[in-house]
Structure to design on (332 residues):
């Protein structure tokens, strides 16, 4: 999929390392602007939050392509659905908790039952907006969205993967939720590689085709920390496998196979330990009857106090050191 984006977003592909360092909101706007070069049907339906999304390039290329609904996310989904049903390629971005939990009935009816091909985009997911308090932390959005029949749930780990996902969803519109998280400054960059909806990506594997000590599945920008944690485990003599899960639904069954072939399966997500990637893979592994031990690392099942993202992640044990410590403790 990364190769295909070259025809849609050449400015992004020209320097993906630089693009991945952008604020994810700016990256979203730039990606839509590039997609609009080849797609005159692209539209963004925004709530008040749209002012922060760098949509000027889209507006200049396609006047009238940005519809502002004000602070009214439920109306935003209804308007987006109406436009999508008329053939436009519609993206509806907002704070992740507002475009999922706040509008769940509208999503259930319009994107689920009516199958309106709207792409919901949840910005600032996880703890990214944590300084604004728990009302702005999206820690339940995966649980909400993966329960809607027919809704694709996409969790890119980098801005470049985000651009790939948006380009594919513009080419082939469908009901979808794209969850955008952003790693704190200083986190390692992920290795470049192809991104394809519905496919996982193996970032590291010390025992290809064989059983490994630890297999880690991660989604979103915290994948970079999971990769670093694997390096700390290797220093302790453990073999590791790290899999980036870029699509939660439909799930690539290869993820299940890669985790099943391990002494301990671990899931890592900037989301509640309830109902997200960890819950999904627990279900899948049990369905297969091939479940190893499973450790779910994520946000605790409670609402935290307002704080900066880096400190919230640290308190949740979602640093590389915290992950490695939890895994070693589980292995005994």
């Amino acid at each position: 999929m990364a190769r295909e984006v070259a025809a849609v977003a050449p400015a992004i592909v020209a320097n993906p390392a630089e693009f991945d360092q952008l604020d994810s909101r700016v990256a979203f706007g730039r990606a839509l602007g590039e997609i609009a070069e080849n797609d005159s049907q692209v539209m963004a339906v925004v709530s008040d939050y749209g002012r922060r999304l760098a949509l000027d390039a889209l507006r200049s290329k396609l006047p009238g392509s940005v519809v502002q609904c004000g602070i009214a996310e439920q109306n935003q989904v209804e308007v987006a659905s109406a436009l999508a049903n008329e053939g436009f390629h519609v993206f509806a971005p907002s704070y992740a908790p507002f475009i999922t939990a706040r509008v769940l009935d509208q999503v259930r009816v319009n994107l689920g039952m009516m199958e309106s091909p709207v792409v919901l985009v949840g910005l600032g997911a996880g703890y990214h907006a944590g300084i604004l308090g728990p009302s702005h932390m999206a820690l339940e959005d995966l649980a909400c969205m993966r329960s809607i029949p027919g809704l694709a749930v996409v969790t890119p780990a980098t801005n470049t993967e985000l651009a790939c996902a948006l380009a594919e969803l513009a080419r082939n519109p469908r009901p979808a939720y794209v969850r955008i998280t952003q790693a704190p400054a200083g986190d390692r960059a992920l290795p470049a590689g192809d991104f394809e909806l519905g496919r996982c990506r193996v970032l590291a594997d010390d025992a290809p085709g064989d059983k490994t000590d630890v297999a880690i599945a991660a989604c979103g920008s915290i994948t970079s920390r999971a990769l670093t944690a694997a390096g700390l485990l290797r220093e302790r003599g453990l073999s590791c496998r790290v899999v980036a899960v870029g699509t939660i639904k439909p799930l690539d069954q290869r993820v299940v196979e890669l985790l099943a072939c391990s002494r301990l399966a671990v899931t890592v997500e900037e989301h509640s330990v309830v109902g997200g990637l960890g819950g999904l893979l627990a279900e899948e592994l049990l369905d297969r009857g091939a479940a190893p031990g499973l450790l779910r690392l994520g946000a605790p099942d409670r609402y935290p106090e307002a704080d900066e993202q880096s400190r919230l992640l640290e308190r949740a044990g979602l640093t590389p050191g915290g992950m490695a410590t939890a895994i070693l403790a589980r292995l005994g």
Observations:
- The radius of gyration is 19 Å.
